[in-house]
Amino acid sequence: MGNANQGKMNSINFKAFPPIGLLITSVVILHITTAAQEAAAQQYMTPATLRELQQKEEMKDLTLVDVRSNHDFLQKHIDGAINIPFPHVGLKPLPKEGRTVLYCHGHPCPLGGRAAKELEQKGYENIWVLKGGLAEWERLGYPIFISPDTKVSSTGKCMELPPLSMKELRARIKSKDVRILDVRTAEAFKGGHLSGAKNIPLDKLEANPLIISKEVEWVIYDRHPKRGKEAVLLLQEAGFKARSFPGSLAVWSALGYPLEVGSTKE
User: Fold this and answer.
1) 44-146 adopts what CATH topology?
2) CA nearest 179: which of 213, 226, 140?
3) Main-chain dihedrals φ then ψ at residue 20, nearest 5 degrees
4) What is the pLDDT of residues 180-207, one digit of tens each?
5) Where are the domains of the chain?
6) 98-128 burial by CB neighbour count: b if 16+ within 10 A, else e?
7) What fold does the segment set 166-254 form as a domain?
8) For residue 227, which of 200, 202, 204, 197 has the smallest C-alpha distance?
């Protein structure tokens, strides 16, 4: 009986199966096609189109929503926007008539796309994401609201260096020409942090900013953008080159970028 079964197995025509290379290619094509379909399903509005609608006073049937944190919104936002931080999108009612345009820091920013999906699942049909986000809007010189409470230097200029884009940050981490400072607690740091980051909790940094070197540029982050910006301004006032990056750790994690786990690096 065993020999008979073995003979049947030996008689299988393996040529009838597609080559492994073809199978892998098919899987890759399927993945790319699915990603392309998802991207195509997302509606984007350019800053120029939104600005044109503003100038024509056609904002009556358009709701502009900033999905960043409340702290970031209060510091600076597009004129006419309301603030619904991403975790609360879908919990606060929005008009279902007309268009809803969502935006966050810049591109890429997954929060706008995720917020759009959430609203679509709740029955909203005319949802758009602002292409390039606040960064592109500001680059084009379109009007923004800047809080009068934003700290400025004696020259009247904003003390905080412009945030690094995610692309710039990843490139500079790879080239090792910038240092990363995590100002969360040691316990939070151990749970997941950017590669090569140094951990100094904010209260310890406030007590002695000179605990770190002034000879390098620092990129600061926290889970909460407000705390991260407090650390940036603290270091700026002490004469350090310090900056943040859009969305801080929350957006980095949402984009699926790698995190290290383990003990602190002080």
Assistant:
1) Oxidized Rhodanese; domain 1 (3.40.250)
2) 213
3) -60, -35
4) 999 999 999 999 999 899 999 999 998 8
5) 44-146, 166-254
6) ebbbbbbbbbbbbbbbbbbbbbeeeebebbb
7) Oxidized Rhodanese; domain 1 (3.40.250)
8) 202
